[in-house]
Amino acid sequence: MQTDKIIKTLEKLGFSPNEIKTYLSLNDHGSTKAGKISKLAKIDRSSCYNALKLLQEKGLVSYVMIGKVKWFQVTGPRRLLDYLHEQEEDIKEILPELQERHQAQKIEGQVRLFKGLKGIRSIFMDIVRTGKDNYVFGSEGQFSEKLPEFALQFARMKKEKKFKTYLLCRKDRKEIDAPMSNHKYLPNISESPAVTNIYGDKIAIIIWTDEPEGIIIENPSAAKAYKSYFDFMWKNGKEFQ
Description:
The chain is an alpha+beta fold. It contains 9 helices and 11 strands. α2 packs across α4.
């Protein structure tokens, strides 16, 4: 694995640049004194000591005393997984209160924007978490085309959560999760990159451009109105043969 990817991954985990330089210097060179670590990491001594302190607090660095000198060492790369697990457990402890406070402060008409394929995945995960039937129109099969592996995973999650997709599209257009979907088509409609999802009290509109974008609107009144439009179109839709 290239060093750049390691650095980017550690950055995503919340490590500072000095922590990363210090951690990698120790990992690559073994048990070392602080002065040498600062030279290997190419940072000043005070920054090095601060990084070592933070890494020790994370449980990623330890030291032994040889005479009156501290020799620092990493606790082993697999400790990173333990560190992640501890963070996950800490988050689980505070989630109930955060969720309660979030619900208390939520205002009607909340809007959230998403960008890129990771953002679109977040929208579909929100559909899964909501666990309500999803009513879709405008699909051209982009979900299956752009995110084929995740589309199969989404189908499995739908089955586990026991909700379905009701999808209105152009003729001969289907997503790959057919067992958990009901399809109808509307004749004489134009191709469009915009796909609308209606689930629970939410509307998610996804624009499947080269870099897709999406928006979730959480508004019971708007969702109800969109659902009534969908019901009308569904009633007039044609069954696939």
